[in-house]
Design goal:
- By secondary structure, the chain is an alpha+beta fold.
- It has one domain.
- Helices cover about 20% and strands about 15% of the residues.
- The protein has two helices and four strands, in the order ββββαα.
- It has a two-stranded antiparallel ribbon with strand order 1-2. It has a two-stranded antiparallel ribbon with strand order 3-4.
- The model has no long low-confidence stretch (mean pLDDT about 80).
Length: about 80
């Protein structure tokens, strides 16, 4: 995540030693508000997230992939 300004408790180290957004057990980003499906740190989101425009093809594909794993309605 380089110079991104994300709180350390929202990050995790990947298997290659890089820092990424932490994900919950079901694969969703820890910064996602499941009730609104909006980023809770939108103004401070990392660069990789800024590259995904909401509703764009890449965004829809990624959300669909995660929804197949664990539908939002199944999340407490």
């Amino acid at each position: 995540m380089g110079d991104d300004d994300v709180a350390v408790e929202l990050t995790a180290q990947d298997r290659w030693g890089g820092w990424v957004m932490r994900r919950l057990d079901d694969g969703w980003c820890v910064a996602l508000d499941r009730a609104t499906m909006k980023c809770t740190i939108y103004e401070r989101r990392p660069g990789v997230c800024r590259d995904y425009q909401v509703g764009a093809g890449d965004c829809i594909v990624e959300r669909s992939r995660l929804l197949v794993q664990k539908p939002v309605s199944d999340v407490a």
